[in-house]
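stage 2 :: seqdesign
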């Protein structure tokens, strides 16, 4: 049920039609977030592979990126924009949280998204088979990294102030195992051993973001989770591109 809740929460696909899920399950969706990456990353990789057979790789890659935006409803990209707006425009904890909750996008958010997608477009220089594997593994890995926020930091707002109206519970020992499997198994299966070292770049970015959130917010928000996922995923891709 928690996995189904994660698919309902993190995608726009009609999984809610399969079975009714209790509200308490949504407090346990983060440990299963990497498994959602198996779906979103798999669809991205499939879109890229099929598209590259009949069109330029650059266009196929754009379609792959768009496929995830449609599946997730731009959930993570919205978080990234709010994160840049909040941390770029806010100087205090209260001001940063206020800006991040504002539905309007600001200058920092626009520039942040532009730079993010410009960097993502550089991946078209990789061979298509390698990029397909990286997309699948990177989606799962980035979500694994971001999911650790709930184990390290407290939630920065009150539950009733949450955009999603839910505060995630910290992971149990069993959930940590599922989370680890969901995030790392694809890489162990599909990536050659030397590429595993590129995880280090993502871990460094994750560590920096944790310290930044702790210093500015004394905790995390849902926007922080989305931003951490995208930035850790991007770092993993860029490290793989540099080392390839």
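stage 2 :: out
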């Amino acid at each position: 049920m928690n996995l189904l809740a994660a698919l309902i929460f993190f995608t726009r696909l009609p999984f809610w039609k399969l079975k009714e899920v209790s509200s308490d399950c949504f407090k346990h969706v983060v440990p299963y977030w990497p498994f959602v990456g198996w779906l979103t990353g798999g669809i991205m990789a499939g879109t890229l592979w099929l598209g590259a057979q009949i069109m330029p790789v650059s266009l196929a890659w754009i379609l792959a990126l768009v496929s995830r935006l449609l599946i997730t409803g731009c959930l993570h990209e919205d978080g990234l924009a709010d994160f840049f707006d909040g941390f770029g425009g806010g100087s205090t904890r209260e001001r940063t949280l206020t800006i991040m909750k504002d539905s309007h996008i600001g200058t920092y958010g626009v520039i942040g998204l532009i730079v993010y997608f410009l960097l993502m477009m550089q991946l078209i220089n990789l061979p298509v088979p390698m990029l397909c594997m990286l997309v699948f593994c990177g989606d799962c890995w980035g979500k694994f990294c971001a999911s650790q926020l709930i184990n390290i930091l407290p939630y920065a707002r009150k539950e009733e102030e949450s955009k999603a109206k839910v505060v995630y519970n910290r992971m149990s020992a069993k959930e940590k195992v599922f989370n680890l499997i969901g995030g790392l198994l694809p890489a162990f299966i599909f990536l050659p051993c030397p590429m595993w070292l590129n995880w280090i770049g993502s871990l460094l970015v994750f560590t920096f973001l944790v310290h930044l959130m702790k210093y500015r917010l004394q905790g995390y928000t849902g926007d922080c989770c989305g931003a951490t996922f995208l930035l850790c995923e991007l770092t993993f891709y860029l490290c793989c591109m540099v080392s390839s």
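stage 3 :: structure notes
- The chain has one domain: 2-243.
- The radius of gyration is 17 Å.
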